[in-house]
Amino acid sequence: MTAPVSARILLCSLFVMLLAAPAAYAQVFWTEDFADESTATSNWQHDGNNAGPSFWTWTDDPATGFQDPDLPVFAAPTASNGYFLFNSEANGQTPHDVWLTNVNRPADCSGKTGVKLRFYTQYIYFNPAGTLAQIGVSTDGADFTWQNLFSNLPANMPFQDSVEIDLNEADNQPQVWLRFRWIGNYEYHWKIDDLALLTPDTTNPDFCETAVDLTQYLGHTPDSVQTTGIFDNTSATVSVTDPEVACWGEVGPGGLDILNNTLWFTFVGDGGSYDIQTVPCNAANYIGSAQGNLGDTQMLAFAGDSCTDLTEIVCNDDLFNFGIPDWRAGISLETTPGQRYYLLIDGFESQGIAATGEFCIQIAQQAVIPCSEGQVGSFDVANNGFLCVGENVANILSADVAEYVLPTVGPEHGLTWCISPAPLTAGTWPGSIPGIFSAPFAPDVAPPDLPNDNSVIPYGSYYLTPVVLGGGTRINAGVQPFIFNIDPTGGCFFIGQSVPLVLLPPLNPLSASTQVVNEVLPPGNNGAILLQTGGGSGQYLGDMSQYLYQWNTGATTKDLSGLTSGTYTVTISDRSGCTGTIFLTVMVGQTVSTGDPESVQTFDIRPNPANAVARLSLELKAPAEVRMEVVNALGQVVETLDLGKSDRFVQELHLGQFPEGTYVVRIFAGNMLAQRRLVLAR
Ligand SMILES: [Ca+2]
Ligand SMILES: [Ca+2]
Ligand SMILES: [Ca+2]
Ligand SMILES: [Ca+2]
Hints:
- By secondary structure, this protein is mostly beta strands.
- It folds into 5 domains: 13-200, Jelly Rolls, CATH 2.60.120; 208-366, Jelly Rolls (Sandwich); 371-503, no CATH class; 511-592, Immunoglobulin-like (Sandwich), CATH 2.60.40; 600-680, Immunoglobulin-like, CATH 2.60.40.
- Strands 25, 27, 28, 29, 30, 31 and 32 form a 7-stranded mixed sheet that branches. Strands 1, 3, 4, 6, 9 and 11 form a 6-stranded antiparallel sheet that branches. A 5-stranded antiparallel sheet has the order 2-5-10-7-8.
- Strand 21 and strand 22 (353-354) form a beta hairpin.
- 33% of the residues are buried.
- The protein binds calcium ion (4 copies).
- Residues 206-207, 236-239, 262 line the site of one calcium ion (CA).
């Protein structure tokens, strides 16, 4: 026999509101999803009074129980890994008062207030007058306080949704038992899954007084990264109790930074050292993206027992130079056990627009590195250590991070980069060297932010040296940990290699003038080009080796010699790269010598000028093979004559077929060359 049914699927938020409005913010501290049958049926047990065959049953079939075409399968989030069902229809026409109790798994609600129970349920009943569904709560497992459920639900109407119930009796109780109770006779069924106990979350990061507690992210394995959920400062405000800040990169009224959308966090120290930074996590709207200031948070950590007792500890605006990968803030904090800290995070304001959006907070405990493990590593400077005006040391420096071991023992520790007039000496603390400059000590191996603009460090030639520190103290607490503000007594330090660094001023352009020596024939191959070069770093440093030459011949010398006549080009550059290159074209001419080699005693051509015929007379000191060439003004050989071997020649030259003009008559005698000009005129 089947109970009459006029079921309608009624998934109406009305009934959720009748029972309890879900809290906007909540912290879940106890859950039950009935995942394992043997565990679930051991922890949760059926009891009560029933003459029929049914009992509270564990099942992982969401569709089982009372069947009706309009009744949906059980939709609890984890229904398919197991839930509890009481099938009243299968129980028959028998009155029942049945209980399901967490007999062997009471909940610990110590320290919890405002406790609520949330569970997912499907419920449908038949008898309007005689049915009662209840939730009971007990702190001794015997006496239960009861609340009625589904009070306004009509008969034959299925209810399916998440339900929240206030359990005031559970507040601050170390053991809490729950009991689902159904009194009825031949109803349909009740399904229960996904229980949670929760407390309302009263934290609000907008105010110091309601700062979100991050203590749970401390105390994990060193270097295991803990990441919070997403925070969003878009609607955050500035409070009158927010303190003044003057350690970030903004310059607001009165020289103070600009508080824009302050968020507050708090935690209790445990003696560990922590790296804390804001991160993009899986934020869909990462802070600053819309403002063009990617990730641009600002961070200031305070020690203090309350918001009216704040002492600044560590401050940072930008963790990474040049905003790569973004402009996030990050700090390294050595905590004191039991000390409460507050963390203020604000958005950077640029041109009146503050960075807004989402971020997570990443907290990683740092391993403790004692002084005995400290180590300074090597590094390279690009461009031979020459830094152009307006550039930054960070542009040319690359350190081998793996070689550096930075102690974490404080109060001051980390790595700095010193710029000194002479190389530093191992074992000698450089803080007292006159004229020494440094970046502040930092906890990471990163290049220093030292611009070459003559503002802090004058132009000139220096040495760059990394210095690793552990266990130092600041001499003046109000001044950043520059090398000259550190007392290393009782700590340790390690001096790295000193590498030349030249901070160049604005340079004159390169210039060059040439002196040319023409090729002289004979014997030729004796032309030369001599350069005078100026400007650039060579002029500033008085060092001619700063000029680099590249000739079209492949030569890289300043001057060329042994040249034949022709066109030569040279590119001149500055070794520093801080001025532009120049390009010169140089012509080497040719000169014909009138002097004869020693082996020639006489060499005559007459008449000269000649009309058509001239007589050549040649006397040599010793016999030789002689060849004669006539060369026109274009350098073309127009006639060649082998005269044989002798020491005395007379030769008629027939020149009638050649046009008027100036010619050169060359005589090759052995390896000697003599030549005369011959003019043809008619
Ligand atoms: Ca389940
Ligand atoms: Ca605020
Ligand atoms: Ca920043
Ligand atoms: Ca700001």
